Amino acid sequence: MAADSVLITGGARGLGEALVRAFHAAGWRVAVSDIDGEAAQALAQGLDPSGETALGLALDVRQAAQFEAARDAVLARWGSVEALVNNAVVTRARPVLEIDPDEFSAVVEVNLRGTFIGCQVFGRLFKASGYGRIVNIASLAGQNGGTATGAHYAASKGGIITLTKVFARDLGPAGVAVTAIAPGPLDSPAVHELVPPAQLAALVETIPVRQLGDTAFIARTAVHLAGRDAAFANGAVWDANGGLFMR
């Protein structure tokens, strides 16, 4: 039996790169997509110069036509695609009273609209084929309102959690499981760029386990949720926040 295939959005760097490497290491054929197509192609080339198990694609998740083109490129290369990981993200940190409405829309367009389009485009394909896995990357900020991120980021991530439940309910009967992962602060370039060192040190002191999250662990969790035995996790939001938010 051929290996399963996955498309990962925002896959060229940060958590996206960790996701790509984890899926590839687990034996998946991986389509690395990113708005920076050259970076996506470079990562794919580094994983497998032959292109047999890694493919790099340019993808602006805000555009349904580009999502459809990426889907078709994966199908043309490998004949099938079994999973989608919606990871593409824009993060802004700004006090809520200072957020320009256009900036709010720009963040929501990538994070929430992009996830919606991905779930819809691939949901149709998976429903028609009778099988599929969608893993959405949400955030603790979407559960507690965020502490180091902007309201637009937090609102978009809360929306992703809701979309996950909607698509899970709609697609579950067709053999498609839709789940989300809600990480807390991660030891990633994005977090280090977003939060000044002194503020980050203070933030770590508020985490019960007194450390930032590991992107590799989040990535392995995504691989787990994309597995063929993960149907019963449908609709779940998996928390990984060091104890900052418990329910």
From TrEMBL:
Family matches, as CDD domains: SDR_c (cd05233)
One Gene Ontology molecular-function label: 3-oxoacyl-[acyl-carrier-protein] reductase (NADPH) activity
EC number(s) stated in the UniProt entry for this protein: 1.1.1.100
Pfam families noted in UniProt: adh_short
Top-level enzyme category: oxidoreductase
Domain Ketoreductase, chain residue ranges per copy: 4-189
SUPFAM superfamilies, per database record: NAD(P)-binding Rossmann-fold domains
Keywords for this protein: Oxidoreductase
InterPro entries with a match to the protein in the record: KR_dom, NAD(P)-bd_dom_sf, Sc_DH/Rdtase_CS, SDR_fam
Protein family per UniProt: Belongs to the short-chain dehydrogenases/reductases (SDR) family.
Protein name from the UniProt record: 3-oxoacyl-[acyl-carrier protein] reductase
Organism phylogeny: Bacteria, Pseudomonadati, Pseudomonadota, Alphaproteobacteria, Sphingomonadales
